[in-house]
Every structure is written in C-alpha cells, then in structure tokens.
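hey so i finally got around to running the thing on that chain from the lab meeting. sorry it took forever, my laptop kept dying and i had to restart like 3 times. anyway pasting the input first so we r on the same page abt which one it is
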Amino acid sequence: MKLFKTIFAFLLVMASVNAIAQDTTDLMSQLEKELGPDKDQTYYTTATFKTTRLVNGHSVENVGKGVLDVKISHRFGKINEGGYALFGLDNATMRMGFDYGITRYLMVGFGRSTYQKTYDGYFKLKILRQSWGKRKMPITLSYVPTIAYRTLKFEDPTIKNYNTSRLFFTHQLIIARKFSEGTSLQLMPTFIHQNLVNLSTDPNDMFAIGIGGRQKITKRISINVEYYYQIPGYKLEGTTNALSVGFDIETGGHVFQLHFTNSQGMNERTFITDNKGRWDKGDILFGFNISRVFTIGKNR
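ok and heres what got predicted. didnt touch it at all, straight out
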C-alpha cells in the first residue's frame, strides 16, 4: 500500500508541475513538423535529462566522447537534528566522482564517498537510443554495472577477515523516454549483491525497481523526483525505500542539483538497500551535486 501511495504522490507531483509548465506537446510530432517529412533520415532524442545523475542514481544520459565530468556531491545531516545542529548543516558527507566518455555510447566512472569510506567504479553503456524518422525507437536503454569497495575497519579484527567481504556489485538497466521537450521518465530495475551480510536471515542478493522523472519549469530549471522500491523478500531487515526530490539549475558549463532525500549514501548499495531514513520521521537530508565538464579529448 505504501508503494502505491508513493507512486501516486510521484505522479501527482509530475502532473502538477507539467500543468504549470504547460508543455504537453508530443515531442516526436513537434520535432517531425520542425524538421520536415524526410523519412530517409534518423533523428535522435537529446537532453532527456540535464546530467548523468537524476538525484542519487544514474540517469540515462552519458557524457560526450572525450569529455570529463567532475561531480562533487554533498549530503548534510538530518533536518530533525534541530537547531543545535543547524538542522543538519553541521554534519556532512561527500562523494567526489569522475566520469569520462570513451565513445558517444560508452562512459566510465570512478568515485570515493566519505560515507562508509567507499570507492566505486562503473561503466554505462547506451544500448538503444530514442529516435524517429527512418529508424523508430520509442525508448533509450542503458546498462550500468557497478563495483563498490568499502574500506571501513573490520568490526572484529581478532577474527580472520577477508577483503572480498568488502565488495558489493550492482547491475542496473535504465529505460527512459522523453515524452515532450519538458517531460522525461525512466524506470531502473536493479540487482545488488553483497558478499557479506550481518544477519543469517539477510539475503546476499537484493532486487529493487526505481522510477524517476524530470519536468522542466523554465528553460534552465527542472524538478526531479526519484524513488527506489525494494522487492519484499529481497531486502535487508530494517531498511526503507529511498525517495528524493530536487531541482536542476543549468548555468553554462555547470549544473547545480539541489535536493531533499532520506538517504545519506551516494552509491547504489547505500542509498537503495542500506537506507534507514524515513520521511515521516523527519529523516530528511538537504544536499547538492555540482557538475563541471572539461573537454580533454577529441569529440566528434
């Protein structure tokens, strides 16, 4: 029941913003009119999202070939910590990441989070691309495998510990569609494996499905919503689903993302399957992502 309520709230937010923006024109019809009836050409959708991240998770976007995207992400403490901690601003965790475009369809990334002192690496491969004209494709499809390595000290150093216990693996498909110039949605079915779990009842393999969307408010500002639902029977005990709401602000070579989330972690394992924050209890964290791109190779 909670899932349906959350999805309903998500759709209500997107519909309300969409009405404000007054942007319900079908993207394909609009662009076909602008570009003419040339059926021998294939036209590809661009800018489904502003950057490679929706909020915490990946969007379907890639950086261009030869482009380096440096991304700094901050999450402050919980708002319910009150005035003594300046509503969470006294505390912060961060992730610094580097994404590089090898081709138009393949990018690699690496990052390090202060939360649980975790390193992560991944690549994103664009398998299908939304298009119209000679070749019609209704969606964009990407595949993102991730490996994460937690470097916290072992809880009990007196016993034999294994470095493989620190490893976590994620496989994710991202299915996206740009419905109009201002409206985009994506689904993110996700599989996460961790080599070591704390309780014998906890699963090593976990499944979740994410839903996310973007609605433009102005030419350079959009609202983003992201929600990950953990499949019952394949989740850790005591964890909650991650819900994030934020704004993208584009200023030249920078994209600022300001958001509110119930997750402190910034890699898939921590914000999808190890999240314990609850919106109804005030476990809400203010955060931001700052992205700056540099062209360091040939981009054709």
